[in-house]
Structures are given as C-alpha cells and as structure tokens.
Amino acid sequence: MSKALKDKILQLKKERQAIILAHYYQIPEIQEIADAVGDSYNLSKIAQGCSEQVVMFCGVRFMAESAKILSPEKTILLPAANAGCPMADMAAYEDLLELQKEHPNAATVSYINSSTEVKAISDVCVTSSSATKIIENLNVDEIIFLPDKNLGGYIAEQFPNKKFIFWNGYCVVHSRISPEDVLKMKDKIKDIVVLVHPECEAPVRKLADFIGSTGEIIKHATESSSNNFLIVTEEGVIHQLKKHNPDKNFYIPGEGMTCVNMKKTTLKNVYEGLLNMQHQIEIDEEIRIKAYNALNNMHKLSR
Ligand code: 13P
Ligand code: SF4
Questions:
Q1: How far is the CA of 15 from the centre of ligand 1 (A)?
Q2: Per-residue pLDDT tens digits for 55-79
Q3: Can you give the pLDDT at residue 1?
Q4: 113 lines ligand 1 (CB under 6 A)
Q5: Residue 90 pLDDT more than 60?
Q6: Hey, what's the signal peptide range on this chain (predicted)?
Q7: Which domains, from first to last, does the chain contain?
Q8: Which of 60, 149, 175, 196 to mutate to test the pocket of ligand 2 (most atoms within 8 A of CB)?
Q9: Ligand 2 centroid, distance to 4 Cα (angstroms)
Q10: Proximal ligand: closest to the CA of 195
Q11: 47 has a pLDDT exceeding 70
Q12: pLDDT of 68
C-alpha cells in the first residue's frame, strides 16, 4: 500500500470527521484502511449508529443508499460512483408492482441488494445473515421474495409451511460455481470443510457443511478446530480469514469468484472522495421515507 496515500487519507478522514466502512469483498488495501469491515447487515447498523456525520462507504451503491435511507442527515459517500450490483438491477419497480397485483395477500420481502424504488414498495428488507430470523418474526403465510432466487430458495427450505413467490434474480458471481467445482476440491482435500454463501445455487448449497453470510463464514472458520476450508463466496473474504487464522488453509473453488463491482474501489478514489466530498448519495425524500420503513422493519424484526 502506498504509505503516502494512506497517510493522506487518514489525515483527510480526521479533518472531515469521517468514518470509513468496507465490505468484506473490498480489496485488502481498502479493508486495511477502514474503521470497520463487515457484512451487509453489520455495516448498515454501524452506518446508522455511528456518531460521525460523514460516512465513506466502500462497497456497492445499494449499500451506500441503504445508509442514506436510514440516516438522511449524514453525508454518505460512495468512492467508486459506478460500483453497482447486477443482482439489484434485475428487479425493476414496475415489474414488482405487477407481481404484487397478482398476489394481493403476499408480503414483499426484498433482499437489501435492491434499488431504493424496490425497497419503497417492500414490507421489509433482509440480508443473508438476518433473513431467517426476519421471516420467523414476520407473521404472514405468503411472501414475494426478491431479487435473489437462491437466497429465497435457501430461506424457503426453512419455512415449508409458507408460500414463496420467487423472482428470477441471482448474483452473477455466486452462480458461477458448479457442484463439480466443489466436488473436485472435496476429492483433492479429504478433510476440507465447505462454507457456502446462500447466494449460491441449490446443488452447491447441498454440498455445504455450513451456510452463512460473509461475516458468518469468517466467524465459523475462525471458531472451528479444522484446518482446511473451501470458501464458496467472493474471494475478498480471504483477507480477513487469513489475518485471523494465519495457520489455517483457505481455498476458493473454480475460477472467477471476483465481483468486479466490489473491486472498483481504490485508495485513490477514497482519497478523492474525501478531498472533494464527491459522489454523495442523494435520494428523493418521498421515496426515502417509504424505503426507510422496509429497512427499519429489517432492524426491528431481526432482533
Ligand atoms: P453479505 O455480506 O451480507 O453476506 O452479502 C454478500 C453480498 O453479496 C453483498 O453484495
Ligand atoms: Fe452484487 Fe454479487 Fe457483487 Fe454482491 S457479489 S455486489 S450480490 S454482484
């Protein structure tokens, strides 16, 4: 890491009284400069609860937008303005309205990986670490779940008495993994423990020893007495895994477990973002208030 650039960022951070948050999929240099590194759920809580009024959110757009929805009084900066999430873009507001008309009794549960417009017409948001608890606390029999059909499928398996209506969305990174990729590694390293993100497809999830969010995968591997782990999620999590477990071995199946959008954030654009206070998240107040309900319900129902 360029020490001079890192020092300049830390100095500017002090001047702007800012906090830097980073998702586990960010490049190691960004994770190292952040005040907190976390999964989607924890980062949304930190962004809302922190005393700093300027939040530099190193992740993708829906994460920074969620922070703004929850804390409109704060200045939320997205360092790489074009860092989006292809899965969030798979669910359009108008299409959701149509589906809701077809299922008037269903509650709409949207993954936090969705647009502000979609959140505005959702009853509650979920993340991969909070979804099970939220559905447990949600007193409804019929659920429209979007955009991720894989996370939706994973949750539905745990609630066989509820009716789920799925969306045809998916993560372009996690759906690249095939069961064969996992089986090859299991064959090579006999005692390997398979840790899988719920955004993976069902045949891959079936091969898992543990399924959880990025944060839960890191916690599970750190607390485990095993030594060899197959990490079936975006490769950015390896940085924290190695940092906390220098003596354990971590493997990624197949190739291409890299989210190009998560990798768009660089130290240079964190520096420029703080220097120019640029790429501030702005949200129309009418839509924000509606989307706030869905995110606020997420925090309420995940307790
Ligand atoms: P989590 O950090 O909640 O596991 O989410 C993963 C993800 O895909 C974020 O884009
Ligand atoms: Fe979106 Fe998948 Fe990238 Fe997460 S890893 S930001 S869900 S494309």
A1: 31
A2: 999 999 999 999 999 999 999 999 9
A3: 57
A4: yes
A5: yes
A6: none
A7: 3-83+262-284 (3.40.50.10800), 87-171+287-301 (3.40.50.10800), 174-251 (3.40.50.10800)
A8: 60
A9: 31
A10: 1
A11: yes
A12: 97
The mean predicted confidence, pLDDT, of the chain is 97
- Residue 47 Cα to ligand 1 middle (Å): 16
Three-state DSSP string of the chain: CCHHHHHHHHHHHHHHCEEEEEECCCCHHHHHHCCEEECHHHHHHHHHHCCCCEEEEECCHHHHHHHHHHCCCCEEECCCCCCCCCCHHHCCHHHHHHHHHHCCCCEEEEECCCCHHHHHCCCEEECCCCHHHHHHHCCCCEEEEECEHHHHHHHHHHCCCCEEEECCECCCCHHHCCHHHHHHHHHHCCCCEEEECCCCCHHHHCCCCEECCHHHHHHHHHHCCCCEEEEECCHHHHHHHHHHCCCCEEECCCCCCCCCCHHHCCHHHHHHHHHHCCCECCCCHHHHHHHHHHHHHHHHHCC
pLDDT tens digit sequence for 246-261: 999 999 998 889 999 9
Determine the residue of 176, 234, 257 to mutate for testing ligand 2's pocket, defined as the one with the most ligand atoms within 8 A of the Cβ atom.
234
CA 66 to centroid of ligand 1, rounded, Å: 13
Q: Which pLDDT score is estimated for 3? A: 86
